[in-house]
């Protein structure tokens, strides 16, 4: 990840705004800048837009939206911000928390109204740490649908997205970015730009960086995008940018093994539990799915079984991933615990005891309270492991998503958003509040696109 002086021979192409990365963050930034009248080019290392977004459930938390009001949910940005900070034990920059929470509803409604994204709120179960139901998703509750709809919106607006182009160097003079070198199937291309938005996510795919900053998760299944190699952080370091919370990440302890399919945490929040290969429960599952990755990986073979019932399975089927897991036989079912023990290979006595000892209305030995219906036949189970989804540390940005310099001030025309920027998950994994990743991707992407477009207007005398 080189930093080079501007090429003496000039650039092969010049664009006002260049966006590196075509996940949700980059595409929202592109739509925003284009909507403000700026010309945009998006480059993507992969063969098609996807990013970590496509591997997620595609749910975006937002407060005070009309979708919530229509569902009878009373919510506001201050409450959302409080929930974010509570989960992260107050470790986040308050101004960033307030910024993301405050603009979350605006961005969701703008995407819905301007580009016909049919959002609705998940209303039949709660996500850990959220005091209100505020997860907004598309009909399939799948990140692939979110990416596909954003890409379709970009195409309808005439926004160019060029794939199979990996950014390998920045052309810099002083504190100003002049362009980017791209590696493609036909060699290198040097593209000049008036503003650069880094939407290339974090560094979860870089095993050396994971080992350095997050050694406790280095052996986890990598469930993010392989191009998340830490390019933004490397460039930022070279430019003297400030980084924050590089040890923060989102894990997930409920990925079907060996199928590699994300199983919604609804199977836990509705009353399910996790047991290890000895049939024993081993932690308070209500803490959250990010913490679950370490908890599961600490068990023998790094494996657990998630146990729930047919009622909970009915709720989980709103997620396409869950239906996919059922279709290929990852979800086992049985009419009795004895049968469930047989189909899972778990010890019958221990499994029966683990389910029988679940209390109702009072905390169990791990401190978890079960307030809903108890598990009952028919039972379901899925074999799972812990995974690393994406990192949450990154470049520190200001209220316009401009990259902050270590010495104060900002880099003139460099923006970072989504996983390239520091998120609001504190310093580790336990600070991750459900949806934080897509919250930062969409809201910071929107902010960066708007600010970059405003710069282009000023530059051309249209302010």
TrEMBL record:
* Pfam families per the UniProt record, alphabetical: FAD_binding_2
Q: Which UniProt keywords apply?
A: FAD, Flavoprotein, Oxidoreductase
Query: Which organism is this protein's natural source?
Result: Marivita lacus
Q: Which InterPro entries match?
A: FAD-dep_OxRdtase_2_FAD-bd, FAD-oxidoreductase_2, FAD/NAD-bd_sf, Succ_DH/fumarate_Rdtase_cat_sf
Gene3D superfamilies noted in UniProt: FAD/NAD(P)-binding domain (3.50.50.60), Succinate dehydrogenase/fumarate reductase flavoprotein, catalytic domain (3.90.700.10)
What is its cofactor?
FAD
Residue stretches making up the FAD-dependent oxidoreductase 2 FAD-binding domain = 17-427
Name of protein: Fumarate reductase flavoprotein subunit
Q: Where is the signal peptide?
A: none
């Amino acid at each position: 990840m080189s930093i080079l002086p501007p090429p003496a021979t000039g650039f092969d192409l010049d664009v006002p705004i260049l966006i590196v990365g075509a996940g949700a963050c980059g595409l929202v930034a592109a739509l925003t800048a284009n909507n403000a009248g700026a010309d945009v080019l998006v480059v993507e290392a992969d063969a098609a837009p996807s990013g970590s977004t496509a591997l997620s459930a595609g749910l975006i938390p937002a407060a005070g939206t009309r979708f919530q009001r229509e569902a009878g949910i009373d919510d506001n940005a201050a409450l959302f911000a409080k929930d974010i900070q509570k989960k992260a034990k107050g470790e986040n920059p308050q101004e960033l928390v307030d910024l993301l929470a405050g603009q979350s509803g605006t961005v969701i409604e703008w995407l819905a109204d301007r580009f016909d994204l049919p959002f609705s709120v998940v209303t039949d179960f709660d996500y850990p740490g959220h005091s209100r139901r505020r997860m907004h998703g598309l009909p399939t509750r799948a990140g692939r649908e979110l990416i596909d709809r954003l890409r379709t919106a970009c195409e309808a607006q005439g926004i160019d997205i060029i794939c199979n182009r990996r950014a390998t160097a920045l052309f810099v003079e002083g504190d100003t970015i002049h362009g980017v070198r791209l590696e493609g199937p036909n060699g290198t291309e040097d593209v000049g730009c008036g503003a650069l938005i880094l939407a290339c996510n974090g560094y979860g795919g870089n095993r050396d960086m994971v080992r350095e900053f997050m050694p406790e998760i280095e052996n986890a299944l990598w469930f993010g995008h392989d191009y998340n190699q830490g390019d933004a952080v490397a460039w930022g370091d070279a430019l003297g940018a400030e980084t924050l919370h590089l040890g923060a990440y989102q894990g997930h302890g409920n990925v079907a093994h060996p199928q590699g399919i994300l199983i919604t945490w609804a199977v836990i929040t509705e009353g399910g539990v996790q047991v290890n290969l000895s049939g024993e429960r081993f932690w308070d599952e209500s803490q959250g799915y990010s913490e679950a990755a370490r908890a599961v990986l600490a068990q023998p073979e790094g494996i657990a079984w998630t146990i729930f019932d047919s009622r909970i399975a009915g709720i989980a089927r709103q997620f396409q991933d869950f239906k996919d897991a059922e279709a290929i036989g990852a979800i086992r079912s049985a009419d009795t615990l004895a049968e469930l023990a047989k189909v899972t290979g778990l010890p019958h006595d221990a499994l029966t005891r683990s389910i029988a000892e679940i209390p109702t209305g009072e905390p169990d030995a791990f401190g978890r309270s079960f307030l809903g219906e108890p598990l009952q036949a028919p039972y379901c189970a899925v074999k799972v492991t812990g995974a690393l989804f994406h990192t949450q540390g990154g470049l520190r940005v200001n209220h316009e998503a401009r990259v902050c310099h270590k010495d104060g001030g900002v880099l003139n025309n460099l923006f970072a958003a989504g996983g390239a920027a520091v998120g609001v998950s504190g310093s580790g994994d336990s600070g991750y509040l459900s949806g934080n990743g897509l919250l930062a991707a969409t809201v910071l992407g929107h902010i960066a696109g708007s600010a970059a477009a405003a710069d282009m207007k000023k530059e051309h005398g249209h302010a």
